[in-house]
Task: structure prediction
Amino acid sequence: MSAHDVSTLAISVVCCAIFLILTVMVFHALLSLSKTTPMTANQAPAPVRTVPPRVPPRRPARRSRDRDEPELLPVDATVTFGAERRAADIDDVFEALDRDLIGLVPVKRKVQEIAALLLVDRARNKFGLSAPRPNLHMCFTGPPGTGKTTVALRMAELLHRLGYLEQGHLVHAMRDDLVAEYVGQTAPKTKRVLDAAMGGVLFIDEAYYLFRPGDSKDYGQEVVDILLQVMENERDKLVVILAGYKDRMDDFFGSNPGMSSRIAHHLDFAAFELDELVHIGRRMMERSNYYLSAEAEAAFSEYLTDQMGQPRFANARGVRNELDRARLRHAHRLATELDRSWNRDDLMRLEPADVVIRA
Result:
């Protein structure tokens, strides 16, 4: 055999060996695949679910004692009502009442009594001595201009600071704000006013006009019925103050005994005396940086003496209205003298010519 034949044979042997090796490898690969089952979507591995550690069941949350149930004082503890007044921050309410209103000593005393009752209730609660919430609905009687609205405003603020009203605002209403003209409109109208007053005081002026027994088409009785229900069921959220002339309010309560039984406090506002009206006028002038000369104050006193006997005299409101007219006359008197010089005092001082005495 020649060298060329030997070389050709060797190459053939190597090629056969490589082919056999590759054949074996392919066979093994096909065998492995034949043992593996194809995976479907339903056989895909499930996602891993993290299980949170077991938490013991929560017990019902306890109410905060500081917020809902003040911590009780020991039985041998003591309280002072000076400290209670300071804690409630009500002294400036009484100061404002004295500043705003001249006289009315019985009314101010009644306000002090109501505040004292509520302060004592607050102190009793600190020792665990609970009592029903006092009835705070009121009736203010008296002629116009005697401070009923002012006292109602201060009362709303006082009850708010003592914790008996959530907001302490005042909603002023009269018959037209509550009674509608057609069937089905009175209840929604009244409800809107009551919703606006919730958390504060609803002050109904001339409340006797709500009820007209001689008018069969009047819907005021519907308002009274709604008020009776709300005053009883919502008295922890709303205080109602009825106001008007005493004789007419007596007739109103006589026709509506259920309303009378829901009123706990009656405050009578007496007409002012002459010296009180003069004092009121002087204070009104001071607030506006005016003053009455001695002669003008004498003329003003004469005017008030005449007006106090008139059936429609409006007390402090009448004083304010007349002083407003006096300021108009004062301004006209000065402004018409175009070339005259006026000093600061001239711009403040009212003279008798500015206070007109009516025949």
Q: What stands out?
A: Residues 291 and 312 are 26 Å apart (CA to CA).
